[in-house]
Amino acid sequence: MLKPIALFCLALLPLTTNAAIEKYATSCGNRICFHWWPKVPAIPGWHQDRERNFDMGVNLLVPDDRGFSDAPAVIYARAVYKPRVPEVKSLDALIEQDRRTFLAEKPDGAVAEAGKLTTGDGHRLRSLTFFAPHSGSWERVAYGEEGDFYLIFTLSAQDKASYEHGTPLFEAWVGRYREAP
After folding, report:
1. Which of 37, 71, 108, 173 is the most buried (most CB within 10 A)?
2. How many structural domains does the chain have?
């Protein structure tokens, strides 16, 4: 019974956005959970981890020979539906919230501006690094905004070598993302 209700609710979602967003509704116990994430290009040698996508609320890609838990690096994209975060008034506020959360959780952490990344349709995304070497956290995060969504693209590595190895792949991947026509 929940499946028809979920599909109906999904059909009611706003159509004002033109971001390339995949939208899903699933049964979560006695309620319906909505999942949104950017539709991203495939990466040769990597696969989408569908089960983790729903668990984590992201579009997660892992190397073909690895799973999420044993991959030296993963790449994922997340779409934050603006009406669900009314306290976040701008993309800069979202970035600042992420920065504060990271530094509160990782006392050895450092956040720094990284070069802007350009998507396949010319959008310039602000990007930052979130490093906490003692915690095994090496991330590059690119932030964008399309329609009713904030977009977050992340390279997350367990060590510096995996981060450096994954960075060109991540930059090229973001460069191939395009807004829906």
Report:
1. 37
2. 1
The domain that holds 127 is classified in CATH as 3.40.1000
Phi-psi category of 158—alpha, beta or left, where left has phi over 0 and alpha has psi -120 to 50?
alpha
What is the per-residue burial (b if ≥16 Cβ within 10 Å, else e) of 107-117?
A: eebebeebeeb
Other residues' Cβ atoms within 10 Å of the Cβ of residue 94: 18
Q: Which structural domain, as residue segments, surrounds residue 107?
A: 40-176
pLDDT tens, residue by residue, 20-69: 888 888 888 899 988 888 888 889 999 998 878 888 889 999 999 998 98
H-type helices in 20-60, by residue range?
A: 50-56
